[in-house]
């Protein structure tokens, strides 16, 4: 069923944070929404405020690329909201300058609806600031807000964005699109978008330095700290569909780096065939989301190498075996050792592992011993600071202990803000000590 009468503008909002880096961040959900709407015949445009290769940055010589298409965002320091006013960290707005954003919006006076996405719960303030500008420029237009934050915290979003007259749409894929179109009294047939469509990268008029795709949506594991299995039904894309989609995107976006953002890449039933097919492309592949170490064997490592995979992150989280079991039992020290051995033997020297710091009940020594364990294996770990995610089992447990309130403002849950006020975790000094320890080990290792 084709509808050419309506025109939608998609917007990837600013990030307001104390620190942000373009570690392959593309608004995948929003690009899929664009693809679904285009498939039904709607006219779709996009403003991605976070595209570092936007023509504005190119013309002003502001592109700071680092490795494999990643890089530093342009930012401007901004005033902090009341709730974090006393936290001794600067707040920055990352992305396109406000003046340029206003100028772009003027090109879309005829659109029927504006769709804004959201990702991290603690980035909602940047989403609010983005919509404030849209509302000033378009006092009457319909504005819709969807994405991860909205799906995790629908009630918070409804309350907070109410004064900007925003329609809040939790959920994903067809469910979100059907809710959106119901405001226009339009009904469409449901489409298997996971299998039939790819993200609408053609909406980028400017260059981009990488693309993000997936071989599956969701995750069958139920880790206590993660919201993914509660938001998505786990679905696998066929190898044929992945390869066809990748070819199509690479025809008009000639990037060197392709990133799989799966939560469970190695659970694909045809992973070996998929890796064989990927080895026919002349690009570099990356797996930054933490693959399951127990599923890495000699054959998989060989195929990763053959297909030119570069950055491979293993999900490790903690070296403490009790905490490993408590948070979901995804990996053991022995499994990490085996996986690393196979990957390094195949020349995959940019293999790394994620370690969490500041998990509930975690001691500083746990993190240090995890760091040491990784270096002993010959890989450099990445230390991620714990962010409590509202409405996950782990969050509810912290509420039941009285360690967090049910209605704690998400801004306070940002991992760079949390240690400044949360008395149940590691102190700012302890976190700094861990980071400094890691830096010293890295320098020696290199």
UniProtKB/TrEMBL annotation:
InterPro entries: BchE-like, Cobalamin-bd, Elp3/MiaA/NifB-like_rSAM, rSAM, rSAM_horseshoe, rSAM_sf. Keywords: Iron, Iron-sulfur, Metal-binding, S-adenosyl-L-methionine. Residues 12-191 form the B12-binding domain. Its cofactor is [4Fe-4S] cluster. It holds the Pfam family Radical_SAM. GO terms for molecular function: catalytic activity; cobalamin binding; iron-sulfur cluster binding; metal ion binding. SUPFAM superfamilies: Radical SAM enzymes. CDD domains: Radical_SAM (cd01335). The keyword Iron-sulfur applies. Residues 204-438 form the Radical SAM core domain. Gene3D superfamilies: Cobalamin-binding domain, tm_1862 like domain. PROSITE patterns: B12_BINDING (PS51332), RADICAL_SAM (PS51918). SMART domains: Elp3 (SM00729). One of its GO terms (cellular component) is cytosol. Signal peptide: none annotated. This is Radical SAM superfamily enzyme YgiQ, UPF0313 family. It comes from Marinitoga hydrogenitolerans (strain DSM 16785 / JCM 12826 / AT1271).
């Amino acid at each position: 069923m084709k509808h050419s009468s309506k025109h939608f503008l998609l917007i990837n909002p600013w990030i307001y944070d104390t620190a942000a880096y373009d570690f392959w961040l593309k608004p995948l959900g929003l690009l899929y929404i664009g693809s679904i709407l285009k498939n039904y015949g709607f006219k779709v445009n996009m403003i991605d405020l976070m595209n570092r290769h936007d023509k504005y940055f190119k013309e002003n010589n502001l592109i700071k690329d680092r490795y494999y298409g990643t890089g530093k965002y342009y930012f401007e320091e901004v005033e902090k909201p009341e709730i974090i006013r006393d936290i001794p960290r600067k707040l920055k707005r990352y992305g396109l300058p406000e003046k340029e954003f206003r100028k772009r919006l003027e090109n879309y006076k005829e659109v029927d609806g504006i769709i804004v996405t959201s990702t991290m719960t603690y980035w909602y303030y940047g989403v609010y600031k983005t919509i404030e500008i849209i509302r000033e420029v378009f006092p009457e237009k319909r504005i819709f807000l969807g994405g991860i934050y909205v799906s995790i915290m629908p009630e918070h979003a409804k309350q907070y964005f109410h004064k900007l007259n925003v329609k809040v749409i939790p959920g994903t894929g067809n469910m979100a699109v059907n809710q959106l179109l119901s405001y226009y009294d339009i009904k469409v047939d449901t489409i298997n978008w996971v299998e039939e469509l790819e993200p609408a990268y053609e909406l980028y008029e400017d260059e981009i330095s990488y693309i993000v795709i997936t071989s599956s949506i969701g995750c069958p594991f139920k880790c206590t700290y993660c919201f993914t299995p509660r938001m998505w039904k786990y679905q696998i894309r066929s190898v044929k569909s992945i390869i066809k989609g990748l070819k199509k995107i690479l025809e008009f976006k000639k990037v060197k780096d392709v990133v799989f953002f799966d939560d469970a890449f190695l659970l694909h039933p045809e992973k070996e065939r998929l890796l064989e097919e990927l080895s026919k492309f002349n690009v570099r592949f990356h797996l930054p989301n933490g693959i399951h170490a127990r599923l890495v064997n000699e054959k998989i490592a060989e195929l990763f190498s053959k297909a030119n995979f570069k950055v491979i992150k293993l999900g490790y989280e903690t070296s403490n075996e009790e905490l490993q079991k408590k948070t979901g039992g995804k990996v053991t020290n022995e499994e990490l050792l085996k996986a690393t051995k196979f990957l390094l033997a195949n020349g995959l020297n940019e293999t790394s592992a994620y370690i969490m710091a500041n998990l509930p009940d975690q001691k500083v020594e746990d993190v240090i011993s995890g760091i040491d364990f990784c270096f002993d294996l010959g890989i450099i770990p990445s230390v991620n600071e714990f962010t409590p995610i509202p409405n996950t089992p782990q969050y509810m447990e912290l509420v039941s202990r009285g360690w967090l309130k049910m209605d704690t403002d998400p801004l306070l849950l940002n991992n760079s803000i949390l240690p400044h006020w949360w008395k149940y975790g590691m102190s700012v000094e302890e976190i700094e000590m861990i980071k400094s320890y890691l830096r010293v080990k890295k320098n020696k290792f290199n």
